[in-house]
Amino acid sequence: MTHAHFPPLSAEQQAASTHLQQHIINEIQRQNGAIPFIDFMNLALYAPKVGYYTGGAHKIGQSGDFITAPTLTPLFAQTLATQLIELLPQTAGYLYEFGAGTGALAADLLNALSEHPSFHQYIIIELSAELAQRQQQHIAQHAPKMLNKVSWQHTLPENFDGIIIGNEVLDAMPIERICLQPNGALERVYVGYENQQFTYKNQALSDKNLFQAALNYFPKAHDIDAPYISELHPTQYAFINTLAQKLTRGAMLFIDYGFDQHEYYHPQRQDGTLIGHHAHHSIHNPFFRLGLTDLTAHVNFSDIAAAACDKNALDLIGYTTQANFLFNLGLLENLANAHNQTDTTDYIQAAHAIQILTAPHEMGELFKVIAFGKNINIDWQGFARGCICHKL
Ligand SMILES: C[S@@+](CC[C@H](N)C(=O)[O-])C[C@H]1O[C@@H](n2cnc3c(N)ncnc32)[C@H](O)[C@@H]1O
After folding, report:
1. What is the DSSP letter of 103?
2. Which DSSP state fits 129?
3. Pocket of ligand 1 contains residue 55 by CB under 6 Å
4. What value does the mean pLDDT take over residues 108-124?
5. Cα(225) to centroid of ligand 1, in Å?
6. Is the pLDDT of residue 369 over 60?
7. Distance from the CA of 186 to the center of ligand 1, in angstroms?
């Protein structure tokens, strides 16, 4: 891929990227020449002030690097709100959003929940100070009357009684890259820096937990004929484990792209799912424009379910495609109600957004919704049809 397609960097962007690069090189040197890929990705995304999410990159939306569902249309949040309204009365009324991005989902949900008596407080837990500031501005502009119902926290509360939601949060967590050789040897991928460039360095996989997870999930060596590289998700597992331990009553609902374990670790998916996004291009080189390129990997929903249900005995409420979830909750009816079809421009724009959210070749099938519950009993309209829990 040539760099000619990409917008030139401003002096400020170049300086931020160089700063992050030097920060990572220092870390590699401090650790005798190589750091695990997961540490590299953590720094690339979250190094204080200069990581992709913690720095000044514009990130999400048309003028950023990628689009997310809440930034496409408020109908996404309005439809999700139907599920939350079903749930809220059985909880203490607290809604926790992890990784709220631009604040679009928060503002639209707040408007949709404004009249609801069981809704008390919207709490955003965000790692990026830069994004938290943008969220505050967005909510002040688009849901001004509800701003007093919102607070930002950096740490997790002792206990949750309410609903936890996260859209595209799990995919933004750093992953381990593991390589399976055709002779059965398992290697952990490290990042080094040689001859003025970042390079991969593999080392025998000695960590017992990672080794066990690779044995569980990766294909058998006899089913591959070349080195097979894929991801393991210990950060996501630990995140869900912590939330599940803290949930006293209520539900957790995550929307993201990914697969069940069988589809994820298909023998033909030889290079895993790690990908970068920059200026609406997919980037296959994770070292490209560091700090200005998003890095992400798909979610292994079987692993998420293992952390919530096998480890913490939460109830698996549902697992389905984003299209099924939104249709079950009345997305099309919401479109019809929100837009007077004689106002064609508005209607066509909204219908186009809905097509992106639900078409099988867009976000409709790759994106899944998974929900877990504890001490609640409702019908869960979002999973009424098309549940694929058996795949997990
Ligand atoms: C791909 S963006 C999605 C943003 C937004 N939810 C949306 O849909 O537009 C990922 C977000 O997750 C946040 N994030 C990642 N790990 C997190 C964690 N452990 N706790 C809270 N936020 C996290 C990032 O800072 C970022 O805001």
Report:
1. S
2. H
3. no
4. 96
5. 37
6. yes
7. 31
